[in-house]
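During the first year of the project, the team set up a workflow for recording each protein of interest as an amino acid sequence followed immediately by a discrete structure-token representation. This format lets reviewers and collaborators read both layers of information side by side without switching files. As required by the reporting guidelines, we include two representative entries from the current panel. The first entry is reproduced here exactly as it appears in our internal archive.
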Amino acid sequence: MDPITAITAATAAFTTIKKGFEVGREVESMYGDIGRWMTATQVIKDSHAEGKSRGKKYGSVEEEALETFGALKKAKAMEDELRNWLIATHGMNAWNELLRIQADIRKKRKEAIARAKRKQEQLISYILLGLAGVCSLWVVGYILYKMWSR
């Protein structure tokens, strides 16, 4: 997801969350919306940190910088408001606990991706080793065949 799409998704999810709070919905019933919002804001932060292309052509570096700055500030303002709602609803440690859970999930996903990559590399190694073994056997067999056919 590019940053422009991410800020649009974050704004839409945040609007839904805000309306939910205004009509008195429980926080628990809005976890899906909060999750979508958190994912979109993380994309904004990651793409800024990694310096990814913003998905469209800019006339200048200044234009791109201003748009990125605006997206980051908007995401930060939404985050501050959401943190206040969660603290008001679930107590002072709610936001920190949410961030801790989010960090744990992110760490587990990263480990799972690394494990899958190692497993794939190991499989490729086994396949290449097997092919080398088959080729070696073929060469030995060919040499033996030539020796006996004389």
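The second entry, processed by the same pipeline in the following quarter, appears below.
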Amino acid sequence: MRASWPILILLCGCAPMPRAPGPGDSIVDAALNGDGAWKKLVELCDDVGHRLSGSPGLERAVEWAVKTLEADGHENVRAEPVRVPKWVRGRESLDLVEPREHPMVMLGLGGSVGTPTEGVTAEVVVVRDKKELDAIGDGAKGKIVLFNYPMPPYDPEQGTKYGETVAYRVNGALWASEKGAVAALVRSVTAHSLRTPHTGAMNYGNAAVKIPTAAVSVEDAELLARLAARGKKPTVRLMMEAANAGEADSANVVAELRGREKPDEIVIISGHLDSWDVGQGAHDDGAGCVIAMEALSVIRKLGTRPRRTIRVVLWTNEENGMAGVKTYLRDHAAELPKHVAVMESDSGGFMPEGFNIDHADPAKLEIVAKKLGRLLGSVRRIGSFGVKPGSSAPDVGHFKGHGVACLGLWVDDSIYFDYHHSPADTVDKVDPDVLAKGVAAMAVAAFLIADAPEWP
């Protein structure tokens, strides 16, 4: 977020000014009184399950989404083909072998190479960060590097610090390889753990040698750190069958509510359909998908067709490649100038607090932020609701370079990383009433933008 941009709060603790009811109020009522998003999420999580790119689970999810959107009566429902990377986890394990035998909890990181059949057995050198790794010189050569970088507890002012923490998951293998290490381990990106590991994507960059890499639980990272600090020279055996298996067929799923006056102008609402291959992908990003799907259904059932077309897009391959949005931008290049706003929910099904918003043109960003702030008064019953300029969401952020207003649903993410990319990301962690509030927020924003006489 640009430091010079204030947060434009739409509702404070004081009583709202009297206001005549508008279409946004009807949308909020319908969303809060419905359970369509929750029913969809249960089906996606329990009947389909996790949905890694290139897996049968993602194929089932595409089929489910098409059938569900058709059943809701939407127009132009389709699966638009996308080629996605296929990474296969295979069997994997991590065992402490010295100074005692002890099984550890781990998850290979997406994109990692595997180990030899017999695994990799080596002493673990523990560092907190890259600065400590650089300081030990050749001390990592022939060893397994553990980056024991802790994610700090959530702070209302500073947020989650996800960006600085996840750097070790993404780049740890590259940095360790450059020092001659034979494998890399990273402390799971979470501030709260019950010995649950958290996976995610990694990147070898320009590494001359690709080494296997995995996430370990916070508890096991701390155990290894204590042993090393006491001079015990902990040794582990890492076994991973992980492999990159080329590409596979997938699809973005699309559906529309065609506009009544300007059907060629488009407002996108979206989430990403793929997930990691653990848990159920409930918060990441099943919730985002069903919020977008149900938002369109709420508007359709009210019979309030906006001036512009509202298009749902369920992106494929957000987690480990972004092939879905990149393919969309290529295939829809001719109509990109007609996209007036793109919106995504990809921070979990938690309490909505507003929208992050971005635009390539700073002057237009200011105009869009102020206009959106004025439009969203009808969501006052949800709670304090604001607009934060300067960022959006992963998939829709790709539209910024095309001059489109990009919005991300901003939620209370204080416990998001308790579940993120872990076996604990299951549908029981989602509150149905809170999920319905996310539907209300997205539906109101989409309709009012799509129905505005001029935008921005």
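For the second entry, the following points were noted during internal review. The longest helix spans residues 282-302. Confidence is low (pLDDT under 50) at residues 1-17. Both points are flagged for discussion at the upcoming steering committee meeting.
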